[in-house]
UniProtKB/TrEMBL annotation:
Transmembrane segments: none annotated. It comes from Streptomyces mutomycini. Keywords: DNA-binding, Transcription, Transcription regulation. This is TetR/AcrR family transcriptional regulator. The keyword Hydrolase does not apply. Residues 28-47 bind DNA.
Length: 189
């Protein structure tokens, strides 16, 4: 019998907290069972397996991140919106490194369709409306922004920029300035 009070939601939240503490790759049903002081089998009434747990954490992270970005974007346009969007992603990754890693999990099509992924794409496209891009350039720009933000965040969190000056804050500001300039002067095909 499962321990009273354990639910899929509580396990997902605990798994997300564990991911932030020890890394998303170390989150398993067995590790979560040890955390709660129960046998692995008692969690299987709430979770199918470790992949189900990881998917739930990814969905939670995507939703939290979308809520944070939406709040940051409210009432902003142009470069101000670009900076708010980028900073919300970067701040979330710094505060929740395991959850941010979870948000990168490749989801099966059904889970992806039910996720906040569409909200992320919609918010990115909303930012780009301020730059007057049409298709297919808008799709190219969505991919560019995602690549630059994720790449910078990943390199920074891995310590790749900690060995030299200038500081990462100055570089981040320059990266956002460069993206804004590029989006304003998007090259013709």
């Amino acid at each position: 019998m499962a321990r009273a009070g354990l639910t899929a939601e509580r396990l997902t939240q605990a798994g997300a907290e564990m991911a932030d503490e020890v890394g998303f790759d170390k989150v398993t049903v067995a590790a979560l069972a040890r955390h709660f002081g129960v046998k692995d089998a008692s969690l299987y009434s709430h979770l199918k397996n470790s992949q189900d747990l990881k998917t739930r954490i990814a969905l939670l992270a995507l939703s939290e991140l979308a809520d944070r970005v939406a709040a940051a974007l409210a009432g902003r346009a142009g470069k101000d919106a670009l900076e708010a969007f980028a900073n919300a992603y970067r701040d979330y990754a710094r505060e929740h490194p395991g959850r941010y890693a979870a948000a990168q999990l490749r989801l099966d099509p059904e889970a992806a369709a039910a996720s906040a992924g569409a909200r992320h794409a919609g918010m990115t496209r909303a930012i780009l409306r301020g730059y007057d891009l049409t298709e297919p350039d808008q799709t190219h720009a969505v991919r560019l922004l995602g690549s630059v933000f994720h790449g910078y965040i990943s390199l920074e969190s891995g310590g790749s920029f900690s060995h030299s000056a200038p500081g990462t804050e100055e570089t981040w500001a320059r990266v956002l300035d460069a993206l804004d300039a590029l989006l304003r002067n998007w090259p013709a095909p």
